[in-house]
Design goal:
Length: 98
Amino acid sequence: MAFQVFMSFDLDDASEEDYARFYSALAKIGLSHWVKGNIGKLELPHSAVIGDFPGISVESVRDQVRSSVVQILEATRLKGFAFVIVGENGTWGSQVVS
């Protein structure tokens, strides 16, 4: 079964280069700062990523992703906080207000 994962994060004392390295590492595990929708590609707000992951339960996918993110933080020597949300049969929408 596929689950949608959304993650918001905050990196402590991180530079733009640190964020770029972190986004790149997250993309390698399936979490992207860009999402494809009905009207094309959309960039998520700063410090947010999304991706689809296979698994048997929301809990197991949450734990798998959270563990992978901790490993990435440790490998890149970054410190911070990650908030992981996992759902099945989810949907999302966006709206620009000018």
